[in-house]
């Protein structure tokens, strides 16, 4: 009986306040009387009997039976009255369900629909949080002006330059090619070209991927083949991409730096990645919506479950050097904290690319040789199946030969498909 009276009392108080729009609210009141107040706001209504501006009837209701219940009892009550109260105004098409929480002296009206927002707050992990998709999306990744460091011998129909930009305070170098002639009205389409694993000690800007860059450049695209941090003359420490976001940040910074060039279409930039950079490209596409298309050749590690399933057999890895590197220590710390990759574990689910495909907005093209003896073609086949299940736009091409680099006689076919894909989507 006492609880029933109390329920009626609080409902009556709230209705009286709503009805008496001209009443002055108490000193601790935080709600606005404006009809434009969103239904989602938290409305704090003070029910203190000593508050100024209270009507006598309200004072009597607040004071009545205060000796019958203790503050502790009042704090334990949560009375849902959303079905009994209509809070609609002309500017509020949908009334929020309200909860009254009483603490003896104060009643707070809370939008019950706001509770799920609190429950869905991004989880922060003590170790390795920087690798999660949520953390990357929340970070501010910026570009810089691009500096031409050196002009190289021109290609068939394009100029070549050593250029640099800034990524997280590191000066990153790369090979920048620009088509001859006047750019289209919206600017040239452009590609951030991300190399696969090459031992940093032997990496050089103008070596490797020469025919790849040449083919893309001759097609009329601006190509920026960046030397990921710690490679060539690029500052910073090499980190790998599977257990560090650093290379992904370098690639997104390169894209944002390309957007500063007046001859590049700022909304016509894609990414190309090989081997480990497949992980980089897909992660960048989840984080940065300005990546308008992604092409991956012989890519690896998308779900992280697949890393356990297929592993990687790269003969260029120097295990002793790797064991001494900071990235190995970081990887070991993550695995000690959360075990081997397993998307049943919250951390691995948070870093998994395939578990975060809701953020993928642009199309993806995958290429893989079935005889790749470094990165199993199962990585690409599995990814394509998940993309299909999620209703994402993708293309998958497999080749009977060509190995890890998709070389002759399949290179030309794969490159023609790559160029056509970029031309269509950039």
Quick description:
By secondary structure, the protein is an alpha/beta fold.
What secondary-structure arrangement, pairings included, does this model have?
Layout lengths: L1 H18 L23 E4 L9 H8 L7 H5 L2 E3 L17 E5 L3 E6 L3 H5 L13 H6 L8 E6 L5 E10 L2 E10 L8 E7 L15 H9 L3 E5 L19 H13 L5 E11 L1 H12 L3 E7 L7 H6 L8 H5 L2 H13 L7 H6 L12 E6 L8 H12 L4 E6 L11 H15 L1
Parallel strand pairs: 8-9, 8-10, 10-11, 11-12, 12-13
Antiparallel strand pairs: 1-4, 2-3, 3-4, 5-6, 6-7, 7-9
Helix pairs in contact: 7-8
Written account of the structure:
The N terminus is likely disordered. Strands 5-6-7-9-8-10-11-12-13 form a nine-stranded mixed β-sheet, with helices on both faces. Helix 7 packs across helix 8. With 426 residues, it is α/β, with parallel strands linked by helices. Helices cover 31% and strands 20% of the residues. The N and C termini lie far apart (70 Å).
Can you give keywords for this protein?
disordered N terminus; 13 strands; 31% helix; 4-stranded antiparallel beta sheet; 9-stranded mixed beta sheet; alpha/beta; 426 residues
Roughly how many Å apart are the termini? Answer: 70 Å
Helicity, in percent? 25-40%
Order of helices and strands: HEHHEEEHHEEEEHEHEHEHHHHEHEH
Poorly predicted sequence stretches spanning 5 or more consecutive residues: 1-10, 12-120
Q: Tell how many strands the DSSP assignment holds.
A: 13
Radius of gyration of CA atoms, rounded to a whole number: 30 Å
State which percent range the strand residues make up: 15-25%
Question: Helix count, per DSSP?
Answer: 14
Assign the structural class, choosing from mainly alpha, mainly beta, alpha/beta, alpha+beta, or little secondary structure: alpha/beta
Please tell me what the overall shape is: globular
Mind describing the biggest β-sheet?
9 strands, mixed
In which order are the strands of the major sheet placed? 5-6-7-9-8-10-11-12-13
User: What would the average pLDDT be, to the nearest integer?
Assistant: 78
